[in-house]
Design goal:
By secondary structure, this protein is of the alpha/beta class. It is built from 15 helices and 14 strands. The strands form 3 sheets. The chain has an 8-stranded mixed sheet with strand order 2-9-8-7-6-3-4-5, with helices on both faces. Strands 10-11-14-13 form a 4-stranded antiparallel sheet. It has a two-stranded parallel ribbon with strand order 1-12. It is globular. The N and C termini lie far apart (about 75 Å). Bound molecules: glutamine.
Length: about 400
């Protein structure tokens, strides 16, 4: 007979650590926390990057029709055939890349899952992952969860706000070693708005070839470009087709961040591994929304032209408002964020400034330090998202003017 635990035992707290060492090594997302704070204080949310305007009617209709037609059970684990075919057709049209929808595409729950499934599929304990900072918050924790070691390289802000964020070639080369498994790229870049130039991508390609590393490239903002900037996929550079995982999704291009439909495109060998990880992580992305994805990805060119035009207008609305309120603004060439320098406000750091902004001014932003491994690098920066209606942006502008009077 198994003896009963004593009353003492039942009352005592667990002696083993409750929380894994991995989970202890990163914090909750600051971006998502700022959204909750915006709700708490009734602030306008220019923190988390999601549109507050409607998604295109034809895409919503396609989703409703798919549910009506009872496409309500699991899709094929690695993605509905119709969506994979649409992804392959779009890759061919936009990037000139031939992709086999049967063997080279994994549809995931958002590009977020595509990124972590890719890292889990390629890394062993102790492998190193090169990550540019400022980074999109998920990449560091993704590397840690995959037992890999993140190695950070700084994108330096331009002295002239209209200039480009740049990496130092020597600094980048210095973090590559035989332990480097992959470099994570994000172009157009969140949060800086940088669009990596061909020469920069060629430099990165040469390092990948020299050190036998992969490129994992998050291109979710590929259609949100300004000032004639061109988006280039590193997979299209000589030598990179077999060693690149290209990640994308519906969220930003079709204004459906809550649908959670993204994908990873890679060689059959890589895809095999990504599909296995994805299967056991989530089984599959929402089936009816994948059907709607096939409709979305078949939209005419005019859709993408209008998307970029509308974002340009929003950028032009928020940039002068931020300057008028006293921010130094870094002009983005792509994506839908503006990084700013807050030095002129005289706050001790970005977090206290962002707290003041959300509580007293009524605008939520993201403190710059959350985009860096070394918080001091972001201590004078905050990020604003401008994927918002004119009304939202104008109200935020009004409130930000209070900064001047304070
Ligand atoms: N990419 C968006 C941002 O940077 C939101 C991402 C998210 O919260 N999942 O704000």
């Amino acid at each position: 007979m198994v003896p009963k635990p004593s009353a003492d035992r039942l009352a005592s707290a667990p002696a083993k650590p409750l929380i894994s060492e991995k989970a202890e090594r990163f914090t909750e997302s600051v971006i998502r926390d700022m959204t909750r704070q915006a709700q708490l204080y009734g602030a306008i949310n220019l923190a988390q990057g999601f549109p507050d305007f409607p998604a295109p009617a034809e895409i919503k209709r396609a989703a409703q029709q798919a549910i009506g037609a009872d496409i309500n059970q699991y899709a094929i684990t690695w993605g509905a055939r119709s969506l994979r075919q649409a992804i392959a057709a779009k890759m061919k049209k936009c990037r000139g890349l031939e992709v086999d929808p049967e063997a080279e595409i994994t549809v995931c729950c958002g590009s977020t899952e595509a990124m972590i499934a890719s890292l889990l599929a390629v890394t062993n304990a102790g492998d190193e992952i090169v990550i540019f900072e400022p980074f999109y918050e998920n990449y560091g924790p993704d590397a840690i969860l995959s037992d890999a070691r993140p190695r950070f390289v700084t994108l330096h802000p331009p002295a002239d706000p209209a200039g480009e964020w740049r990496f130092d070639e020597r600094e980048l080369r210095a973090v590559f070693s035989p332990r480097t498994k992959a470099i994570i790229l994000n172009t157009p870049n969140n949060p800086t708005g940088k669009v990596f130039a061909r020469t920069e991508l060629e430099f990165i390609r040469d390092l990948c070839l020299e050190f036998d590393a992969l490129a994992i490239t998050d291109e979710i903002y590929e259609h949100i470009l300004y000032d004639g900037a061109n988006h280039l996929s590193i997979a299209t550079l000589d030598g990179m087709r077999e060693r690149t995982i290209t990640i994308n999704g519906m969220s930003k291009t079709y204004s459906v961040t809550g649908w959670r439909v993204g994908w990873a495109v890679a060689s059959p060998a890589l895809t095999n591994a990504i599909r296995k990880v994805h299967d056991f992580l989530t089984v599959g992305a929402p089936a009816p929304l994948q059907e709607a994805g096939a409709t979305a990805l078949s939209m005419p060119d005019s859709y993408y032209e209008e998307l970029a035009r509308a974002y340009r207008a929003r950028r032009e609305r928020l940039l002068p408002a931020l300057r008028q309120a006293g921010f130094k603004t870094f002009v983005p060439r792509g994506a839908y964020y503006i990084m700013t320098d807050i030095s002129s406000f005289g706050f001790p750091d970005d977090v206290s400034f962002a707290q003041h902004l959300v509580k007293n001014i009524g605008v939520a932003s993201v403190p710059g330090s959350s985009f860096y491994s070394r918080p001091e690098l972001g201590a004078r920066q905050v990020r604003f998202a401008f994927c918002k209606t004119d009304t939202t942006l104008d109200q935020a502008a009004q409130r930000l003017l209070k900064l001047r009077k304070a």
